[in-house]
Batch of 2 targets.
Target 1
Amino acid sequence: EFLRGLEGVCAAEVYNTFSGEPWNAPRADSTGVLDLVAAAGRCIPQLAADDSHMYEGEQGRSFTMLQADSLRPEDILSALRRGSFYASQGPRFLDVELNGRELVVRTSPVCRVNFISNKVWSDGRCRSGAGMTEQAYRIRPGERFIRCEIMDEAGAWLSPVLLDGGN
């Protein structure tokens, strides 16, 4: 409730390398909290970072990939404001399409694709296999948001998207 009520929030850190093992207790991933906020109707864009303090191998592992016209600050800020980005530790989202009642993702080769929503369980949300590069998920009745995670040796996260009325 507190996070949902915050004004002026433009993004949240979904993954922080330094907040995970072996540098810290396993609390690097904030998807659980951010999913609760999305289920309550507020989708906060998600970034990843390292928050490097020790420089003992944690730096450069988590990053935000964005689609910008150039590396000029104004183009980077424009891409962030448009939501043209995702959080990653290596896997790539090559194309993302929400068409009607289906979310289609095209990716670098991955071994796991998870589609996450407000529903506790939905058939077909978790897929695994070697070298997957395209997966589609049919939006189910009652789902109010959808997002996607992809994994190879590491992970990548799409920001959640609110769906039309949850129907």
Note: The mean pLDDT is 88.
Target 2
Amino acid sequence: MKKKTLLFVTIFPLVAVVAYAAVGLLLFMNRDNANAIDTTNKVAVYTVTFDTRGGSAVEAMQITSGQKIDNEPIPSKTDYRFLGWYTDIGYTNLFDFQTEIENDLTLYAKWVEIYTVNFESCSGSAVDLVRVTNGQTIKMPTTTRDNYVFLGWYLDADYTQRFDFATPITGNITLYAQ
């Protein structure tokens, strides 16, 4: 019986130490795996920034990789017409909102100035002002006045510079009826 007890007392601590070491090793290995970042299921999120070039603010958007921008934001700017979003400040690459986003992106608003043409009917019937995009032309409106014949529109109240309606509008003007 003494041999069995001696064998048990000698082998049991050895088995316990080996088991303890094995459990410790497994826990150590699992600790490293538990802290590892699983990148296989991670999806990139990109920021799309809108530079309105002086227009109303547009908040940046967070877009998941491969997704499209749902709604094109339309900023406003007094006395300007919005022409679209461009990927470059030189306005050579119009952004297509059907494009899937694959990186951070800044879009630039392009604007064209709008001018006002006022009509001074000089006691004739009123003519509404016209808002026109820079470089565009307008059609000649008419005005009437009892016992008078309308002769045209002039750039000055003294009727020395007749306005040619084929002329592109490049600034705010007032035209005078004669």
Note: The mean pLDDT is 87.
